[in-house]
Amino acid sequence: MSAPARSPQGMQDTIAGGIGESPLRPDGTLKVRGEFAYSSDLWHEDMLWGATLRSPHPHARIVRLDVSRALAQPGVHAVLTHEDVPGENVYGLKYQDTPALAGDLVRYQGEPVAILAADHPEIARQALKEIVVEYDVLEPITDPERAAHDDTLPKLHPGGNLVRHQRIVKGDPAATADVVVSGVYEIGMQDQAFLGPESGLAVPAEDGGVDLYLATQWLHVDQRQTAKALGLPLEKVRLTLSGVGGAFGGREDLSMQIHSCMLALRTGRPVKMSYNRLESFFGHVHRHPAKMYYEHGATRDGKLVYVRAKMYFDGGAYASKTPVVVGNGTTLSVGPYDVPNAHIEGWGVYTNNPTCGAMRGLGAVQPTYAYESQMDKLAAALGLDPAELRIRNAMSEGSTVVTGQVVDFPAPVAELVQRVRDLPLPPEPTGERDIRELPGGASNTTHGEGVVRGVGYGVTIKNISYAEGLDDYSTARVRLEVIGGEPVALVHTAAAEVGQGLVTLQQQIARTELGLTRVSVHPADTSVGDAGSSSASRQTYVTGGAVRNACRAVADAVYALAALRLGRAVEGATLAGGKIVAADGEVVADLADLLGETAIEETREFHHRKTYPLDPETGQGDAHVQYGFSAHRAVVDVDLDLGLVKVVQLDCAQDVGKAMNPDAVVAQIQGGSAQGLGLAVMEEILVKDGKVRNPSFTDYLIPTILDMPPMRVDVLERPDPHAPYGVRGVGEPPTISATPAIANAIRAATGLELPRVPIRPEHITGV
User: Fewest beta carbons less than 10 Å away: which of 431, 456, 512, 629?
Assistant: First the structure.
């Protein structure tokens, strides 16, 4: 297929299929060739470069702040502090607790203290060194469990150190069982590790406002927070999505948005800000580390009787998505299993560690690792096969989850486990082995001696879309007109394309609903209604629903126009091949002829069915819209002498409801599995006394193509009757279930408890 054309307006066209097919991504060829423009490539001939001064301390009072020497440097046009914030110096996704620029206190290492704009990035970097800041260094609070309960600790925020406490009580919280297993599990701080740094270009406008071009996950929430800090009405802060080089939750919170706009408005010139890799580690949130205490009770034949758990989530300096993490973590705490009795408590707390927020699998990654570790421990205590124990307890349609909500859509959990269990295992190694296939690889650490093999399973449940009473929706505008003698549809939403393939999906839906070949996608911006965030595996569901609704409104308008101009009813007609086709197959009209100079444009929203807040005492309530399910089976080789691990095979079965784009579905499952593998054996931001020790891709390790094993992906399509086209969110579940599958496989190989991920060599060798 030829490369996609780019229209003068920057819109993208491609000729491909509709729903259920796998058309070429309109941005795919450009990305492969290295020609795609990301936000870090933004340029303006008159632009300045912005830079940020950050605190070196995780907890300190600012005693003195003097910017005069920096402002006097040649080529420096502005140096701004919290006193220069024109509006309110506070923002936040759930709680308004984060200063745009620190005032009298810094609460984490890397917190922004001052910003400046200069003619050249090197001038900006050197000028930062001339800003004088005197700190009164304070003792950091770094233990989240202590922060949750110790009232003698200093209060990091006026309300104290507790962000949210949630209790879930189902059935008899004091139930007893024949067989009981318990464990304490920890999960480290994972980074989203997107390759495109935080970046954007702010351009001052003649109306006193500002136009901001940037990489983000949610244009409208950025607009609202930025406008508030700038003291401007929403209509004067206009945002346009630029190329996004990955996100995975790390772009939900603000980074350079307010700063670049402040500098642009102060200097009257465009200002570009682009973080380097070191700064990026301090400039965005990370996955919440957690410590979890679990106890499972079961009958002797392997039926779960109860689960009791306490979970502590380290939110770091500011709230970000911690309230949601606690909500998800507690409501998903027992996994995709039928559990009649439960007593769960979760705490999200402030500390002086790096701020933690959204990351793929939000709030479900932590408990899944714990309860899946418990399921293997319980299987061993019962003398059962780990897969069989999961199948015996798997929830199904009609099950009641731990919050009392009834699952009223397909939940093929047992089938997913059976499918991965029954996939062929890799052959057992015999004879001389290729060192590239062994732990340690080409470093030639072993030729097979001391290497043992293990097999493990991981299964998860993940909520799709936002929850607990939030009215989650998206907006789409669809325009149908004739261009060059052909009918063309233009789809316009504010939904962020962050690599997941939404730009293709919008075309597929419009192509299917309107029976057209040519569909363009307008660049996402804030001139159309809110689409919400590209997170929570929600965009296919809600923006897909909005595009569908808008297309159907356009189709209805076409039928009305045909009835008016042709003088005949067209009930039961469809749009196909650029024509109106009657129910009996007769071609009623050619769209191009019917429309002529007329353009039809409709804007519609899609709201999913209601959810409800949890009861504050019992945690009962219909909190979630939909659940996604996936299961992994991992095969690993472990060098017991050196503690090195090679993931030999990582197979996944996942229910996606409807595979809107089969190739994209498989790619999402593969990519998510890679992030789960990273958390299992290598990815962790190391924090000591509130300070990050490895803020680089030299020391923060992520999987490469050499680390990813062969994968078999088994995609089930069990449509959800409540969702557009029956879809079920795809992107998050595989990240969640991959980690415990690999950890359980390593346990099976070594016989060790291994209560923490990532599992490092010293955890296996003991030294």
Answer: 431
